[in-house]
Amino acid sequence: MIALGQFLEVLIGGLMSGVLYSLVALGFVLIFKASGVFNFAQGAMVLLAGLALVRALDLLVANGFPLWAAIVLGIGFSAVIMATTAWLIERFVIGPLVNQDGLTLFMSTIGVTFVIEGAAEMIFGSDVYPLRLFPTDAWFVLEGLFPGGILVNKLDVWGALIAGILVAGLALFFQRTKTGRALRAVADDHLAAHSVGIPISWIWFVVWLAAGLVALVAATVWGTKLGVQFSITFLALKALPVLIIGGLTSIPGAIAGGLIVGAGEKIAEVYLGPSIGGGIEYWFAYVLALAVLLVRPQGLFGERIIERV
Amino acid sequence: MLYREAGQFKTTYAEDMAIFPISQDRIALAVLLGIAFIGVPLLATFHIWPFGSDYLLWAILLPFLILALAAIGTNILVGYCGQISLGSGAFMAIGAYSAYKLATGVHIPLAWLGFAVSIPPLPVLASILLGGLIAAGVGILFGIPSLRIKGLYLAVATLAAQFFFDWAFLRIPWFTNYAPSGSVNAPALDFFGLIVQSPIERYLLCLLLLTLMALLAKNLVRSNLGRQWMAIRDMDIAAELIGIRPLYAKLTAFAVSSFIVGVAGALWAFVYLGSWEPLAFSIDRSLQLLFMVIIGGLGSIMGSFVGAAFILIVPIMLNLIPTELGVPLSTETITHFEFIIFGSLICYLLIKEPHGFARLISIGKEKLRLWPFPY
User: Fold this and answer.
1) Which of A137, A249, B10, B373 gets the highest tally of CB atoms within 10 A of its CB?
2) Dihedral (C-alpha) B274, B279, B281, B282: value to the nearest 10 degrees?
3) Transmembrane stretches, by residue range (chain B) (predicted)?
4) How far apart, in Å, are the Cα atoms of B82 and each of B79, B203, B228, B351?
5) Does the CA dihedral B163-B164-B169-B173 come out positive or negative?
6) Which of A29, A38, A40, A110 to probe the B interface (max B CBs under 10 A)?
């Protein structure tokens, strides 16, 4: 029973951290769906949101604001920063590059990544800033079933909860609101959408704003986990296989991909890692993604890629 | 006025097929090669400006030559065959570590088969070229998914190669000959008794290899094979319909590209770095190479050179300017400024000229043909 207990602990830990990957991957999916841009800057946006939030919090608390007011104001400030970023990106990079091919757009978002990283660190500083929004202590569950119980991190539970709310919110936004419907129209065919009077640059701004807010949510969770620091930008690289496994265009896919990657890499690390040198978490997700792509080139939940000649 | 091809008649097929059909281009190339092969070494030997110190050779020319070679390799895959690869850094690493293993002797103990494979240390040149070949082999292996996966999906799939080999060279001690620090030292650069040691010798070695490889690449992309790659890039289904085998075309592109990138990696490690860690070939290197080919111009050998020069030199300049001007800024702030300016510059270039410097050059040539008269 110990083995099963350990397995469950690893599995749950993996699934939970997978949800956190999904939080980053969601931002990618939003932008890819609506504008066909593969947004490499998502990791940098998480960093920017996190830095803005944590610095604002520190400043407000130091000036004697009560904690709840500081949190509300800090999140508001960070959201304004993300909105400004979204507007700048749409206005100066993505707008002028409309109709270019995917690779050019992808490279331009790498350029954006450099700018955001440089600017964020210049304005808000480049140290490690601890962020304490959620409890991070461990929790033991099912102690009756397994000796010692199963260790679950409370932060992971919070992360899963937030991800769930976020997905539900996004689904409602996409399905029920007028803007959401316009978003789907633009995603389908931006020229056709334009011709029926949907303001494309506004829609793209909304999409980048949504991605920025998702980044802010991801930043609160990841910032609590790791502290807000430069290495958060590497999350973007972690989120790529998640995206690919789930499918680039699917929001549920981002969640499912995150779960698969999170559970897969933890299990592989624990059961396979010791025999081949450890640290395989580093590449396991990518190899998994490669294997999934060989079977389903569009990912598990992606739209089928139909080519016409 | 000077750049006109009027009066230059092609009377043979060979002349028609020449790489540089216009004589002014040939003269320009000859002058450039003359400067590179004779001028620079002369200046450097006598320490004449700008070669007063070795800084220009070490910090700019040597990395430029090697990265230009790697950019040519990347351009064959991304620019000519249209297969986006984010794994070029890994193939540089494979070239570097294979060359290192071959140059220091390979010993594979196959205890379970009852014997061991042992290869004595090979000469440096052979190791570098074989390192390239091994990279080509691995390139073919990681090229197989490209038969099913396309575009950005493929780009992420090639990241698998990047991260896997980053890990392998860091964690498997066999590759580093069980070096405790994980960092390895290149063997002495002995070319048939000639020891390459001073910066200028290293420069000439890289220049020679680069020239040969660039010529090879240029001729390959003009050949039957190159046209197959371009057909696959432009529309793979149509290419298949007119009888081009995607399997053959894509995998040869992966092989040739990985070979050149692998040789560049071996040179980077042996000639430029001397001692290195896997970090030298991280994902940043892959992105840098991809920037070089995109800023330089997809599908242009010439563009690879310009792109490599741009991507390499701009950060160095950005770093130097504040110190030269005497602006009192902390190194941290300079780094952040560098990031911002470099990023904006890339976005600006992509917006202004999505086809890169190669397009700018050809536009410039067209303008030059008419200059200074408007007819």
Assistant:
1) A249
2) -170
3) 27-49, 55-78, 90-112, 124-144, 151-172, 203-221, 251-275, 287-314
4) 5, 32, 11, 20
5) positive
6) A110
Find chain A residues with C-beta within 8 A of B332's C-beta. 126
Interface confidence, given as ipTM, is 0.84
| B339 close to B282: Cβ distance less than 8 angstroms | no
Q: Is residue A194 part of a domain?
A: yes
Q: Which of A38, A244, A280 to mutate to test binding with chain B, by most B CBs within 10 Å of its CB?
A: A244
Distance CA(A84)–CA(A88), nearest Å, equals 6
Indicate yes or no: CB of A283 within 8 angstroms of CB of B333: no
What's the DSSP call for residue B77? I
Query: Which residues contact residue A90 at a Cβ distance below 8 angstroms, ignoring those fewer than 6 apart?
Result: A201, A204, A205, A208
End-to-end CA distance of chain B: 11
pLDDT in tens, A97-140: 887 888 888 889 989 999 999 999 888 888 888 887 777 777 77
Residue B282 φ then ψ, to 5°: -80, -175
Query: What is the three-class DSSP state of B185?
Result: strand
Q: Across the strands, what pairs with A139?
A: A152
> What backbone torsions phi and psi does residue B275 show, to the nearest 5 degrees?
-135, 140
Please count the structural domains in chain A.
1
What tokens appear for B189 in the block? 């650069």
The amino acid at residue A273 is G
Q: State residue A1's pLDDT score.
A: 45
Show the tokens assigned to B356: 């890169």
In this structure, is residue A111 part of a structural domain? yes
Whether residue A11 is contained in a domain is answered as no
DSSP string, B109-160: EEGGGTEEEEEPPPPHHHHHHHHHHHHHHHHHHHHGGGGT--HHHHHHHHHH
Asked if residue A122 belongs to a domain, the reply is yes
**pLDDT for B179-215, tens place per residue?**
888 788 888 888 887 888 888 889 999 999 999 999 9
CB contact under 8 A, A107 and B346: yes
Out of B172, B283, B350, closest to residue A108 by CB: B350
Out of B162, B241, B343, the one facing A111 most closely (by C-beta) is B343
Torsion over CA: A59, B329, A223, A137 (sign): negative
Residue A121's closest CA among B343, B323, B351, B290?
B343
* Residue B306 three-state SS: helix
- Per the structure, the complete domain to which residue A117 belongs is given by 18-230
Residue ranges covered by each domain of chain B: 53-370
Q: Is the dihedral of CA B221, B139, B83, B351 positive or negative?
A: negative
Contact in structure between B304 and B293 (CB atoms under 8 Å): yes
Model confidence over B357-371: pLDDT tens digits? 999 999 998 888 888
CATH fold of B53-370: ABC transporter involved in vitamin B12 uptake, BtuC (1.10.3470)
The terminus-to-terminus CA distance of chain A in angstroms comes to 58
* Dist CA A144 CA A67 (whole Å): 38
